[in-house]
Task: inverse folding
């Protein structure tokens, strides 16, 4: 889906520039914003076939030209696709560029050459990445030490594309296996150090891998070495920039930096970096970048802003190809709606999310959907249903010993019970939370907030207002462990 949208964006730009029409003029003719046209052409917003036909009709171009253009693009790729690596690989295909450019006649020759360069890069990148995938399939069967020996002993494992691919595996592992993410990032860094070619190209690769090493440290909660790795990666990345023809994903690098800044509580800086990532993105990761932006806005307690960004991200996700991202965005959006007193709206959208999660069949994600169903039910006054579902969630989190989520689910249930003045039942929560205080899985500030609630529950003075404030604080404290709760007393 993302690749089709990219090709349609190329076609729109090619035909528009061939006719000498500016984006502003096309906007006037089609009665749309020139900014929207710019986003289509720069792959920041997906363009579908029906929309392209409408825009071309404003230029007096019929839909049959789309098929001709798609055929032309495929011919260009077939002609210019070549073997080889980054900088020197391109020189072997320069002679093909002029040959294919001549087929474009007199239509926007400068743009055609630029387009051919882009497609040459895409072709070479595709081939190199396909080869890297084969190599990774061999490597991943072996333990970490053995993988490193393969790289040390054989030149065929020293390619930029394998470095990129192993770094991507590190990102995938970071959420659930931080130690494996670290090993993979270190492997990517070693591949970069041994990669043939210009020294400046190796710097660029080392910087790229270094960002992923910083991300692995962050995922493991080890911020001091993450900061050091990030600083070194930025220097190498910038020093090697002239040697990179555009193969490595700058937007992803900026996203990693933004996530580390967010973990460091430097939210304003993180927002600037993620905006830059959104500006330079050419690789179709806009939905993921928006997810990072939404998480950053949560850090400054901008729930409305976070919700708006997530709503923008939802239609951009390719669910079959980006299932983990799709689940994350959908779940966070529905949580924001529930927290923002939009439970009825969340309830209407739960069916779509449940269908995605059920196809993936991951128990913890299914539990989180159940949790949202409980929150939405509570928000629309269906207290019996909310109580039953939230009790189930607490049971799962207790069995899995996920302390933070158990505490949050407990507070959600407490809000339901306290709304019905069932303070005696809430009193039992003071005892239920004792194992969390011993678990060492929660920051001191979050534990202090829970102790405040437990004391109020024990004395049966806890209120809905207190439970809501502490719950909201804990949601924020997940992203900002240094945050401190400002509550003057146990009551409203």
Result:
């Amino acid at each position: 889906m993302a690749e089709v949208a990219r090709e349609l964006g190329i076609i729109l730009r090619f035909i528009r520039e061939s006719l000498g029409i500016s984006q502003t003029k096309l906007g006037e003719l089609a009665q749309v914003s020139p900014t929207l046209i710019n986003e289509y052409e720069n792959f920041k917003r997906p363009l579908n076939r029906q929309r392209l036909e409408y825009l071309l009709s404003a230029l007096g171009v019929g839909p049959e030209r789309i098929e001709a253009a798609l055929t032309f693009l495929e011919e260009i790729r077939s002609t210019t696709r070549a073997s080889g690596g980054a900088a020197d690989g391109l020189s072997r295909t320069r002679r093909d560029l002029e040959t294919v450019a001549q087929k474009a006649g007199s239509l926007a020759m400068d743009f055609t050459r630029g387009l051919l360069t882009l497609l040459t890069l895409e072709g070479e990148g595709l081939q190199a990445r396909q080869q890297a995938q084969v190599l990774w399939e061999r490597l991943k069967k072996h333990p970490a030490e053995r993988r490193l020996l393969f790289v040390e002993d054989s030149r065929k494992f020293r390619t930029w594309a394998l470095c990129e691919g192993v770094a991507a595996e590190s990102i995938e592992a970071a959420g659930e296996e931080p130690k494996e993410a670290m090993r993979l990032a270190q492997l990517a860094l070693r591949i970069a150090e041994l990669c043939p070619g210009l020294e400046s190209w190796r710097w660029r690769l080392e910087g790229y891998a270094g960002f992923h090493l910083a991300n692995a440290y962050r995922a493991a909660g080890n911020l001091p070495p993450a900061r050091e790795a990030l600083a070194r990666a930025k220097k190498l990345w910038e020093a090697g920039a002239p040697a990179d023809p555009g193969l490595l994903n700058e937007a992803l690098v900026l996203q990693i930096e933004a996530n580390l800044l967010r973990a460091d509580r430097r939210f304003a800086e993180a927002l600037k970096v993620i905006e830059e990532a959104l500006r330079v993105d050419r690789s179709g990761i806009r939905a993921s970048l928006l997810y990072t932006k939404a998480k950053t806005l949560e850090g400054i307690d901008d729930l409305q802003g976070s919700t708006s960004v997530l709503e923008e991200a939802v239609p951009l996700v390719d669910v079959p190809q980006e299932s983990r991202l799709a689940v994350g965005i959908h779940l966070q959006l529905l949580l924001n709606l529930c927290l923002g007193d939009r439970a009825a709206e969340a309830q209407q959208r739960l069916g779509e999310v449940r269908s995605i999660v059920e196809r993936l069949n991951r128990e913890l994600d299914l539990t989180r959907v159940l949790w949202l169903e409980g929150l939405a039910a509570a928000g629309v006054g269906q207290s019996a249903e909310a109580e039953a579902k939230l009790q189930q969630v607490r049971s799962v989190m207790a069995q899995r010993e996920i302390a933070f989520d158990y505490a949050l689910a407990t507070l959600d249930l407490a809000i339901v019970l306290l709304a019905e003045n069932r303070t005696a039942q809430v009193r039992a929560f003071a005892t239920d939370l004792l194992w969390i205080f011993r678990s060492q899985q929660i920051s001191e500030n979050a534990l202090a907030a829970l102790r405040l609630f437990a004391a109020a529950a024990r004395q049966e003075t806890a209120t809905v207002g207190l439970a809501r404030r502490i719950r909201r604080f804990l949601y924020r404290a997940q992203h900002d462990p240094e945050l401190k709760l400002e509550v003057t007393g146990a009551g409203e």
Summary: The chain has a mean pLDDT of 85. The domain at 2-131 is CATH 1.10.260.40 (434 Repressor (Amino-terminal Domain)). Residues 109-139 form the longest helix (31 residues).
